[in-house]
Amino acid sequence: MKEHTRVVVIGGGIVGASMLYHLTKLGWSDVVLVERKQLTAGSTWHAAGGFHSMNSDPNVARLQAYAISVYKEVEEISGQDVGMHLTGGITIAATAERWEVLRYEHERHRVLGIDSHLIGPEEIKNLCPIMDTSQVIGGLYDANEGHLDPYGSTQALAKSARMAGAEIYLNTMVEDLVQKPDGTWTVVTDKGNIQCEHIVNAAGLWAREVGSMAGVHVPIVPMEHHYLLTGDIDEIAEFDGELPLILDMDGEMYLRQERNGVLLGVYEKNSTPWSVDGTPWEYGESDLLEPRLENIETELMRGFERFPSVADAGIRRIVNGPFTFAPDGNPLMGPVRGVQNYWSCCGVMAGFSQGSGVALALSQWMINGETEGDIFAMDVNRFGAFATKTYAVEKGQEFYENRFLLLCPNDEWPAARPHKVSALHDRLQQTNAVFGASFGLEIPLWFAPPGSAPTETPSFRRSNAHDPVGEECRAVRDGVGILDSSSIAKYEISGPDAVSYMDYLFASRLPDLGRIRMGPLLLPSGHLKGDLTVMRLADEKFLVTGSGYLQEFHMLWFEQHSAGKKVRIVNRTDELSAIAIAGPETRELMRLVASGDVDKASMPFMSVRSMDVGNAPCLIARLSFTGELGYEIYVPAVYARSLYDYLLEVGGQFGIRPFGIRALVSLGKEKSFGIWSREFTPDYTPAMCGLGRFVDYDKADFMGREAALADREAQHEHQLVTLDIDSSDADAWGYEPIWCKDEYAGFVTSGAYGHTVNKSLAMAYVRTQFLESSSHEFSVHVVDKRVPAVIISEAAYDPSGSRMRS
Ligand SMILES: Cc1cc2nc3c(=O)[nH]c(=O)nc-3n(C[C@H](O)[C@H](O)[C@H](O)COP(=O)(O)OP(=O)(O)OC[C@H]3O[C@@H](n4cnc5c(N)ncnc54)[C@H](O)[C@@H]3O)c2cc1C
């Protein structure tokens, strides 16, 4: 066994083996994998081995498509058969709603790069003769789906890695992880110690245990999962070909051919979390759990109805095995905040679809310092301390049970809620707020009319929130609106090196004392890493604000670049509440409640001052994301409630009215304001998305400068635009394709109805070749139809920005 190496990958399941292979593929060959038993000894060996490329996140979908190509690649390199059955797959719809969603998905696949086809019941029957298609309306067929041999594919990856120089130590148990002062690690195993630079936790079912060896909490829960294998079915034996992989989401099951029978798996509502207090070390290799047929009966019966011959075939074997789920079902990958050189590579619920994609992205991150493209949907830093053990269990279980639920974009799932609440929560409840959750915190989405239930009907079209949100928007445009924006992330950065540190990290010029600037963060490649707001509170003290769900993501970045600097970086998000007030009457209100001068001359747009509001000591930022005159008030959480009450009381004379995030999004869309994770992501550069105007290209040095300068001169394939869509009952959500006549011209990033301009608006990346002529006619696919759209050259509301600056 080597005593020194660059990377130790812990765990030899499909994910660890993929990781080892990708590290070698990208150029690091001095790497080892340590496996306590044999390869596949965790959840991998008993998997059904199914894979598919569909995913609602385009980058995850791309990585899933990539994963499929890797199996062929490693089979060729290693000579090891991966047992590939590229049968194609059909997701079927048995309800009108599901069929509509599948058609919508099909349109979006154009954007995601998935070549899928809609097919009818007859074609489905031809491809899968054992299905009773009498209730089936149609299906979405993807040729790039199928199944493979879990053991063979893991071996092929491992062998290919070995051939490139990696070493694998089987029957070797990692017992402890000790970090040395220089940030490197001692991996303590039962066969001796290995010194290494980096650790990768790919311990699957035992990721929590391996995490705790380094003090890392891994928010996952193993869930029991059943599939059954049948005896031979005549129709299959006689069938010329192989059955496709069938995903029957309405029936909450999947099916594929296994010899001349089938494998039928279910996602049961009556689910069972397994070993919530920790995975026993004795488990594994060839262990399975006792089947709980009574728990899966309902779903099985549905399966037998859809596939009648399966019921008659007899059950040859029932498999009940555990595998892990993160709270939202996506992998947990990336560097772990606060633990240097420690990489998470676990929570991979669909190891055969996602393992290689996760491994590719993580290897890029380790070797190149950044991933190619936005992988936030899989980044372990989308969770923070709020994702406690019980939270992870409740959410993981909820995800398992709803994995195949028809998910609408306005769905808010209820498990583990309320979890974190702001100081204003009960006040918001009293005014009938409908809540969503962001980074564990309850946030007001909109306010239901008095006397009606504070709930929203899940829908792809405009919901019962539409009219109330419209009223909230008009209240902001005409008078004063008030928003609990406590979820906004607030970081205090101070110290003797704060200026030089921030000046390098932010691509913008730093604001002068008492002023505010928009502050893009760039990656070394010049792509976006963040879009923050920077306020200068003192010569060497800044308050930086941004999207609340990115707190760990931002803090990790700040901390990774602060080594050796005299800076103090504190996340004050939970400690400081934020109340936003916006609207033309806002200054009048502020004159009545604030202790200092709020007139334009003393407090212009993009300035920040400390002053009391009522009895509360506040920091007031003169900015608003509504496009109106507005102020963000930051206040210690203990004062927030009395401050809110006071603002409502005094604001009564101006018709003050609470508004929610939905109204904020709509008002922002009217101003063509982009938002992080939609218009702004690491997929784009400032020059592509309009943030270039905040970059100080003349600054001597900043992270990503060289690349940003080159990019400024470059021709970009796409450009960010705003669309006015002619749609009467639905608005775009994101990733809808845009057509110029019949040519694919780009895709929507986000959409909303602009209530005060009466337009269905969307922001979109459109191929530059289609922007050259103003005569182009565009259309966008919104839910179930293509509707005309025009590009608007300036914001739909107050394009000069005079109201916001007033
Ligand atoms: C019944 C069932 C059906 C499934 N069907 C599918 C499917 O069709 N398609 C799909 O994509 N996924 C499927 N899955 C999920 C799939 O099995 C998992 O996504 C995948 O196995 C996760 O792989 P992993 O490498 O992360 O974890 P694991 O397979 O659990 O591997 C972790 C490895 O780490 C080792 N290890 C742990 N701790 C240590 C230590 N301290 N020292 C050394 N080694 C250690 C373990 O021995 C183990 O080999 C299914 C799962 C089940 C249970």
Which range best describes the helical content: under 10%, 10-25%, 25-40%, 40-55%, 55-70% or over 70%? 25-40%
Task: Give a short account of the largest sheet.
Answer: 8 strands, mixed
Task: Determine the strand fraction and express it as a percent band.
Answer: 25-35%
Structural class: alpha+beta
User: How much is the average pLDDT?
Assistant: 96
Instruction: Report the principal-axis shape.
Output: globular
**Over all CA atoms, what is the radius of gyration?**
27 Å
Terminus-to-terminus distance: 70 Å
Number of helices: 21
> What are the low-pLDDT stretches, counting only 5+ consecutive residues below 50?
none
The molecules bound to the chains, other than polymers, are: flavin-adenine dinucleotide
- The tally of beta strands, per DSSP, is 37
